[in-house]
């Protein structure tokens, strides 16, 4: 165990905490930008610190391909390699199984990929994944899980869940740096509550430093999504961090936080920036749209970031999708938005005004009161009264 | 804008000082104008710009054509790959637009005015902008399509014809600190007749531009003349009697040789008053800059940094002027020629040292060659950001050495030594192989 998790405030299931990792003391709930290849696309580490980024996610699969974990190790670990003084988390490479499935062959041994770089076969076993992650040196590392799409049904889900538990044991055995790196287990089981329950118990038995809820954010309907999160957060230990992988949209983060989750990651803010879409309290703003050509308002008048303080929609419009600077500025704003959301979640819980924050958030996003039913149901379970935001 | 010559070296090189209203400090010349696209550097975001040496880095080049679009009657298709010519003068139009019709490259002049001009629009209030239609990176003069109504340029959005009145509309809305009048630039191989026409046209447009000159903002009269000494002289003399605040020397970097350039430059500067600043476009390489300085040019914009950056190169040539001949230099670096290194080379995969050991730019203070090598291999944008920062920093250092040499009265020696040392290294490399 190389972390401390201290809850500082609560509202029902929601909690605000301090998560102290070897490289940085973080405040949760928090959002982790994804720096797949050892960089957040278009932003320097200085800028990331400036906007309040606490943890960055690096991807084992990609880094193992280029520049290789051995090289990173030789140069002193990923922190030193990219000159990032704060916390890092690496995922196991498991997600690539789902996203590159047509190239993958999964057996009890591990996963064989066909490398998209040079076509060579690459075998990722639990042991290998942990070894790579040991070399990379992140504060948090993820166990290799057998992840299946939630849109799949049948015995494959059960197989994957049990295999995930067996693989966790292999990961634990292979982990050479438990005093510097925290190994998180990942709860699988598809959308089946029975399977999810078995998996949670199994992982909790292993007494890991933290737990992730995996296998979601992959196209399942929102109603199923929140129910799985609710079930897992209810069953996972109170005194350890809970990480919902691949989430996501600001609305999803608010709901999951209300249900008791602490950590999130997603490519969405930076990816959507590169397509010209900005995150705003009302939802999204498509800066590519012709309506923006002569709009002299900032992207978000309530945002304090460098982009909103200095630039008009009209100017950003002429940059997006055409110039690297457009991607940079929008990524900067979008990440600022997500990190500010994290800060707001943390402070509103600590300061005892979480329900007010949630209502304010929903009112801005759904001014006509058309809050989606799944959100209403989830908030019900979370014990947060959002009737003032809903018209029906 | 205020300009004053402060020191002369042997020959015509001069060190000066330019003061622009928006910049808090004066800027020493000869100086480098940083390249921009739509007013911001190509890769360096505005909050990182301040990490560059100031006030050296406070002068930015800008082409109004980057934002050209809504003001013209041009109707372009949404397909940007097409390079077919649309000539505004002849009102040639495309057929109906595609569903993804992109109305313009930028906000209309009216919008830019309402925002408050270029400085406001790009959030760089304490920087100086020099507006010139030609931008050696993106807006290249296309003399074949230029006609008496306007100047034609190849831009990323196809060919554009700009008339003086349209150009002045953009200048008026953008309010750059200084701007060059619209010019008809021809390449070095243009025939005499075409060249002569370009001079007549450029002078005519100069008068038209001045007539529409907005209050505030310094006018730089454009001088062309191709590779004809007489035409260069004639144009300079014509412009010298106009009511302008400085001179923009066009038509260089368009095919003239290193050997013929000095006399062409001198044909211009010999016929210009000494007290007004001279700006030039198209002299990018260090040796070319030195030629410009030797002829008495003060302001330079250069595409060199951009091309280095996108090629994955980082400048490494020594900036200090002490005698230092490295006999132990090994030709082991692939793609290295003592001026720059190619960070894509595998030799840098594990190199945990900065690009230049005692460089104090953001990139060298924070990152290693190994990291940049990785970023280039995985096609990450951060590579270009870091390289543009270092290359700009380094090139600004080069300009600083030039100024120091002028102030010490030894510019000619400096130029000679610089050029010679580069040739010597090439010779040494040949011998050692």
What would your notes on this structure say?
The complex is a heterodimer of chains A (392) and B (433). With 392 residues, chain A is of the alpha/beta class. Chain A is 42% helix and 18% strand. Chain A has an eight-stranded parallel β-sheet with strand order 4-14-13-12-11-10-6-5. The longest helix of chain A is centred in the last third of the chain and has 27 residues, at 324-350. Chain A is globular. Chain B has 433 residues and is of the alpha/beta class. Chain B contains 13 helices and 18 strands. Chain B has helices at residues 46-49, 109-115, 118-122, 164-174, 192-211, 229-240, 261-269, 286-294, 304-311, 362-366, 369-377, 381-407, 411-432, and strands at 2-8, 14-19, 27-29, 31-33, 36-37, 40-41, 59-62, 128-131, 140-141, 151-155, 158-162, 178-180, 218-223, 246-249, 278-281, 299-301, 313-315, 340-342. In chain B, the strands form five sheets. An eight-stranded parallel β-sheet of chain B has the order 4-16-15-14-13-12-8-7. The longest helix of chain B has 27 residues, at 381-407. Chain B is globular and about 60 Å long. Mean pLDDT of chain B is 87; it is low at 70-103 and 323-335. The chains are: A alpha/beta (392), B alpha/beta (433). At the A-B interface, helix 1, helix 12, helix 13 and helix 14 of A face strand 6, helix 1, helix 2, helix 11 and helix 12 of B.
User: Segments of chain A where pLDDT lies below 50 for 5+ residues?
Assistant: none
The number of E-state strands of chain A comes to: 16
Large-scale geometry of chain A? globular
Determine the structural class of chain B based on helices, strands and strand pairing.
Answer: alpha/beta
The portion of residues assigned to helices of chain B is 25-40%
| Derived structural class of chain A | alpha/beta
* Strand order, sheet with most strands of chain B: 4-16-15-14-13-12-8-7
Shape descriptor of chain B: globular
Tell me which oligomeric state these chains represent: heterodimer
Order of strands in the sheet with most strands of chain A:
4-14-13-12-11-10-6-5
Helix count of chain A, per DSSP?
A: 16
Largest two-chain interface: A-B, 43 and 48 residues
Mean pLDDT of chain B: 87
Protein name (chain A): Queuine tRNA-ribosyltransferase catalytic subunit 1
Organism (chain A): Citrus sinensis (Sweet orange)
Organism (chain B): Citrus sinensis (Sweet orange)
Protein name (chain B): Queuine tRNA-ribosyltransferase accessory subunit 2
């Amino acid at each position: 165990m190389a972390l401390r998790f201290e809850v500082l405030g609560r509202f029902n299931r929601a909690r605000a905490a301090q998560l102290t990792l070897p490289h940085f003391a973080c405040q949760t709930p928090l959002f982790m930008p994804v720096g797949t290849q050892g960089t957040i696309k278009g932003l320097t580490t200085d800028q990331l610190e400036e906007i309040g980024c606490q943890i960055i996610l690096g991807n084992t699969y990609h880094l193992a391909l280029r520049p290789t974990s051995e090289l990173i190790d030789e140069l002193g670990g990923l922190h030193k390699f990219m000159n990032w003084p704060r916390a890092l988390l690496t995922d196991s490479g498991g997600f690539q199984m789902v996203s590159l499935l047509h190239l993958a062959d999964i057996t009890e041994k591990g996963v064989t990929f066909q490398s998209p770089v040079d076509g060579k076969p690459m075998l990722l076993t639990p042991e290998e994944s942990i070894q790579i992650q040991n070399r990379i040196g992140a504060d948090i590392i993820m166990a290799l899980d057998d992840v299946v799409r939630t849109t799949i049904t049948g015995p494959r889900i059960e197989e994957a869940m049990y295999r995930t538990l067996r693989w966790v044991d292999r990961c634990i055995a292979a982990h050479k740096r438990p005093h510097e790196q925290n190994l998180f287990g990942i709860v699988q089981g598809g959308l089946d509550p029975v399977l999810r329950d078995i998996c949670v118990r199994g992982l909790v038995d292993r007494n890991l430093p933290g737990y992730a809820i995996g296998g979601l954010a992959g196209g399942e309907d929102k109603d199923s999504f929140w129910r799985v999160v609710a079930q897992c957060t209810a069953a996972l230990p109170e005194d350890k961090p809970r990480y919902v992988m691949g989430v996501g949209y600001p609305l999803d983060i608010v709901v999951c936080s209300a249900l008791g989750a602490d950590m999130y990651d997603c490519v969405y803010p930076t990816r959507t920036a590169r397509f010209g879409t900005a995150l705003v309290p009302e939802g999204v703003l498509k800066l590519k749209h012709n309506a923006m050509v002569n709009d002299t308002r900032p992207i978000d008048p309530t945002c304090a970031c460098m982009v909103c303080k200095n630039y008009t929609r009209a100017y950003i419009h002429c940059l997006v999708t055409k110039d690297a600077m457009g991607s940079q500025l929008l990524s900067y704003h979008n990440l600022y938005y997500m990190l500010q959301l994290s800060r707001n979640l943390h402070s509103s819980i600590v300061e005892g005004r979480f329900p007010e924050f949630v209502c304010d958030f929903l009112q801005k996003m759904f001014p006509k009161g058309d809050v989606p039913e799944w959100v209403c149901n989830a908030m019900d379970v979370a014990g947060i009264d959002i009737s003032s935001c809903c018209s029906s | 804008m205020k300009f004053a010559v402060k020191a002369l070296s042997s020959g015509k090189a001069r060190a000066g000082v330019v003061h622009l209203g928006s910049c808090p400090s004066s800027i020493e010349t000869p100086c480098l104008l940083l390249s921009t696209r739509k007013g911001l550097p190509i890769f360096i975001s505005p909050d990182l710009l301040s990490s560059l040496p100031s006030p050296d880095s406070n002068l930015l080049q800008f082409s109004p054509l980057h934002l050209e679009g809504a003001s013209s009657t041009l109707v372009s298709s949404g397909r940007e790959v097409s390079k077919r010519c649309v000539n505004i003068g002849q009102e040639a139009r495309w057929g109906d637009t595609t569903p993804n019709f992109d109305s313009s490259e930028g906000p209309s002049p009216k919008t830019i005015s309402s925002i408050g001009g270029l400085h406001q629009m790009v959030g760089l209030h304490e920087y100086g902008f020099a507006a010139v239609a030609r931008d050696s990176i993106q807006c290249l003069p296309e003399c074949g399509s230029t006609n008496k109504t306007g100047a034609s340029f190849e831009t990323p959005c196809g060919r554009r014809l700009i008339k003086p009145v349209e150009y002045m509309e953009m200048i008026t809305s953008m309010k750059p600190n200084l701007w060059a009048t619209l010019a008809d630039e021809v390449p070095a191989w243009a025939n005499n007749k075409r060249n002569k026409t370009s001079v007549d046209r450029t002078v005519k447009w100069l008068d038209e531009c001045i007539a529409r000159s907005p209050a505030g903002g310094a006018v730089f009269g454009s001088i062309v003349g191709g590779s004809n000494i007489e035409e260069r002289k004639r144009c300079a003399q014509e412009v010298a009697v106009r009511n302008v605040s400085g001179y923009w020397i066009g038509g260089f970097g368009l095919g003239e040789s290193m050997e013929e350039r000095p006399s062409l430059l001198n044909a211009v500067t010999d016929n210009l008053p000494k007290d007004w600043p001279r700006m030039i476009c198209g002299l990018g390489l260090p040796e070319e800059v030195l030629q410009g300085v030797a002829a008495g040019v003060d302001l330079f914009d250069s595409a060199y940094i951009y091309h280095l950056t996108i090629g994955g190169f980082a400048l490494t040539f020594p900036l200090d002027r002490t005698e230092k001949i490295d006999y132990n230099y090994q030709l082991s670096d692939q793609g290295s020629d003592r001026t720059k290194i190619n960070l894509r080379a595998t030799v840098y995969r594990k190199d945990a040292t900065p690009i230049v050991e005692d460089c104090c730019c953001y990139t060298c203070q924070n990152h290693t060659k190994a990291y940049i090598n990785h970023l280039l291999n995985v096609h990450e944008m951060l590579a270009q950001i870091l390289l543009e920062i270092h290359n700009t920093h380094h090139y600004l250092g080069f300009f600083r050495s030039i100024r120091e040499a002028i102030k010490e009265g030894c510019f000619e020696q400096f130029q000679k030594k610089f050029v010679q040392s580069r040739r010597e290294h090439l010779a040494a490399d040949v011998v050692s192989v």
